[in-house]
Design goal:
The structure is a single chain. It is globular, with a radius of gyration of 27 Å. It is built from ten helices and 60 strands. With 744 residues, it is mainly beta. The strands form eight sheets. Strands 1-2-5-26-29-32-36-39-42-45-48-51-54-57 form a 14-stranded parallel β-sheet. Strands 3-6-27-30-33-37-40-43-46-49-52-55-58 form a 13-stranded parallel β-sheet, with no helix packed on it.
């Protein structure tokens, strides 16, 4: 059974919780054509399931027998009946859900719901249309009306008073308690450092035509910026006490004092016009562009122009031109699509979009996954639409489970979190999540037993719309898991990240990612001397970075060692196509790099140059953790046999001229790579890299060689010509299987 995976593509980062505008607009005019002819995905029609054991319909009745003509009404009733079915001698049990919307509470499957290897239990769509599992509530357009409350009207700008509509929550049978209060968002928020009710689930969100609507905010789109010229009146207490120097007291700090900022006159005047600052929040990148955070306002003084936030910045104010904006402010309900929830009066306010009369409207409510598998095995979920949770959409703990051909959208957390072994997430579409896409964890790092979880052939786009950083489309953790043939695009930060050993990342198509960050990579991992055995091969990465942002392609950060990177195609990467951050035992070959505006390959010696890598500063928690993990692996016989390279690492921190010295970028091979860029230069290769590793035999050309190397680069065909000089300059170079990259 197959289903056409539905594709809902909107303009890049066109609208999100914060109302951000496209960061991928105004393309670099020097970009070459994007790769074409990758993958061979075709949609397949959805077939009717006529041999299911049970049928469920929104119009059914739980007193029925569950047959096709007399379907049940609820999934819970079907689950109860399946529990009583004998699995012996059966080839499977199937429950088919007929088209329509099922407003559900969390659906929990436990061990007693498991199938077996011979008899898996399948939950799927019947095939007559979308079977929608909604953890929220759909809103009828007729529920909205014009605003009559004069106090509310007086807070709105005159030109929108007749346009903004209101909806008492009681019409939906809910209250603001069901919607949740406002809590901090952003991956690096510090709310947990404060006493009181400061942390909790994401607040409810409003979706129109499956697009996340922004809370009323200022400015309506884009950012305000803090500049260096006196914007910090008083510093606060942070995780760092200086550049890369940890604050030794941070772990025990409670209620740290935050910075006091002086705002520009125009911003001060705008804030002074708001009736109240209660529950008005500030979203920001005050420290670095990979650490987003938010905080309510603690105080504001219009006379001095000073503002202090309730929560301090994790890393402090470290960069000039720091972006921020205000949100959840009724007075700023000024743009179509914006909304606001009055939690005192239980009334929702919305500035409707054009064409509102034909729109579908949803409010997310549940704080739990729509589907939760708790230590169950051999379950299959197929052809379902899953949405409406303020948390994750699907949580799976168990083995031999499958999630396939599903559409997961409009949730506040991740699309899928799975842990266990031999699970498969395949051919799903994932879009408009507040956090990441798929997190797959399995295997054992002590014994290096593989998890064999596979994330394959999925379409993942428009994600990380609430938490902007470190919310990848795919995350691999543990040992021996696979991310393959996925297409990923349109996100503010990275596409794939991983930790652990022996993972394979292959045949993925990644573009238009890292749209709001410089110090990021489309594929990223870092800070470990022991994550050996991972392979990154046959991926295509192109057109990364948004307007004004120049991130990396494949980024091996902070001494990451033991990685193999080969057969990848990287096109139009504005910073470094391959960023090798000082690690050891890196094997990098047969990659094609086209049109990097900065550096094709950077392989630096930061591990040696930066003192904290060798614990000269014992307050650095990252260095301590890295070194402890290394020492443990050196004394693990399983690891010593699996990764004999680590035995070359010496523990003598005085033997700096020995290639075995921990922080020397030694025993790596960067060879037989093809590089074509403006300056015809390989990039930055530091002195100790050249001394202790092999960087040689790479073919480096200028852009005028494009047509001599590729079949049709003017039209995005980067297949190598049979007579390309590359084969003479790099004997043994293996052509890339471009037709196999992407979805199939």
């Amino acid at each position: 059974m197959k289903k056409a995976v539905r594709l809902f593509i909107i303009p890049l980062l066109s609208i999100c919780l914060t109302g951000g505008t496209s960061q991928a607009q105004d393309r670099d005019p020097d970009r070459v054509p994007a790769p074409r002819g990758l993958g061979s995905y075709t949609e397949k029609p959805l077939a009717l399931i006529t041999d299911a054991d049970l049928y469920v319909s929104p119009n059914g009745d739980d007193r029925n027998d569950g047959s096709l003509s007399r379907p049940l009404r609820t999934i819970e009733k079907a689950r109860s009946l399946v529990r009583g079915m004998d699995r012996t001698g059966r080839k499977g049990i199937t429950v088919a859900l007929m088209a329509g919307e099922y407003r559900v509470k969390p659906i929990i499957f436990t061990k007693e719901d498991s199938g077996t290897e011979e008899c898996p239990v399948t939950w799927c769509a019947y095939g007559d249309g979308e079977a929608i599992l909604n953890g929220g509530v759909s809103i009828d357009l007729s529920s909205f009306s014009a605003i009559k409350d004069r106090k509310i009207l007086s807070r709105l700008q005159k030109d929108v008073r007749k346009k903004v509509l209101c909806l008492p929550l009681k019409k939906l049978g809910i209250s603001s308690d069901d919607c949740g209060r406002m809590y901090a968002i952003g991956t690096y928020n510090t709310a947990a450092k404060y006493t009181g009710d400061t942390t909790g689930p994401l607040f409810c969100e409003l979706f129109i035509n499956d697009i996340r609507m922004p809370l009323a905010r200022y400015p309506d789109t884009g950012w305000l910026y803090l500049e260096d010229n006196g914007c910090i009146v008083r510093d606060g207490i942070h995780c760092l006490s200086g550049p890369s120097i940890s604050n030794p007291d941070w772990e025990n700090v409670i209620n740290p004092e935050s910075e006091v900022y002086r705002l520009p006159e125009d911003v001060v005047g705008r804030i002074d016009g708001w009736k109240t600052l209660d529950d008005v929040w500030v979203f920001n990148y005050f420290s670095v562009d990979w650490a987003d955070a938010s905080s309510p306002i603690k105080y504001f003084n219009a006379d001095s122009g000073e503002m202090q936030l309730a929560y301090t910045s994790f890393y402090g104010q470290r960069i000039s031109h720091s972006p921020y904006y205000f949100y959840n402010c009724l007075e700023e309900l000024t743009s179509p699509g914006e909304w606001y929830l009055d939690r005192t009066a239980d009334v929702l306010y919305l500035y409707p979009l054009e064409g509102f009369g034909q729109a579908s409207i949803d409010l997310s409510l549940s704080t739990e996954p729509v589907i939760s598998v708790e230590n169950a095995d051999h379950l299959v979920f197929s052809n379902l639409t899953i949405k409406g949770s303020r948390g994750d959409a699907v949580s799976v703990k168990g083995s031999h489970n499958t999630l396939s051909h599903c559409l997961i959208k409009c949730v506040g957390g991740n699309a899928t979190i799975l842990s266990g072994n031999d699970n498969l997430v395949s051919e799903n579409e994932i879009t408009h999540t507040g956090k990441g896409g798929i997190i797959a964890e399995g295997g054992d790092t002590e014994t290096l037993r593989p998890g064999r979880n596979v994330v394959d052939n999925n379409l993942i786009h428009d994600w990380a719309e609430v938490y902007y950083t470190y919310q990848p489309g795919v995350t691999l953790r543990g040992v021996g898991n696979v991310c393959s043939h996925n297409e990923m695009f349109n996100t503010p930060h990275e596409a794939i990240t991983y930790s652990g050993n022996n993972h394979i990342i292959e045949y993925n198509l990644i573009h238009d990612v890292c749209l709001l960050s410089h110090d990021a990579g489309a594929i990223y991992s870092g800070a470990s001397w022991v994550m050996y055995g991972n392979v990154i091969r046959y991926n295509c990465i192109y057109d990364v970075g948004g307007k004004g942002y120049k991130p990396n392609g494949i980024y091996m950060d902070d001494a990451l060692s033991g990685q193999t990177i080969y057969g990848n195609l990287l096109v139009n990467v504005p910073m470094r196509a391959l960023h090798l951050g000082g690690g050891r035992d890196l094997d990098v070959y047969d990659n094609i790099i086209v049109n990097t505006n900065d550096t094709a390959i950077q392989y630096d010696q930061r591990g040696f140059d930066i003192g904290w890598f060798t614990l000269t500063d014992e307050s650095n928690r990252v260095a301590i953790s890295m070194t402890k993990a290394l020492l443990a692996s050196l004394h693990n016989e399983v690891w010593r046999k699996a990764f004999p390279q680590i035995q070359r690492i010496g523990e003598d921190f005085d033997a700096k001229e020995d290639p075995g010295y921990l922080t020397n970028p030694a025993y790596s091979r960067v060879t037989r790579n093809l590089i074509i860029n403006q300056d015809g230069n390989i990039g930055r290769i530091d002195e100790r890299v050249r001394r202790f590793s092999d960087v040689s035999g790479n073919a480096v050309y200028k852009m005028d060689m494009m047509k001599k190397v590729f079949v049709d680069p003017d039209n995005g065909n980067y297949t190598l010509r049979k007579d390309a000089p590359l084969f003479k300059d790099c004997p043994g170079f293996e052509p890339l299987p471009l037709d196999r990259i992407g979805r199939y």
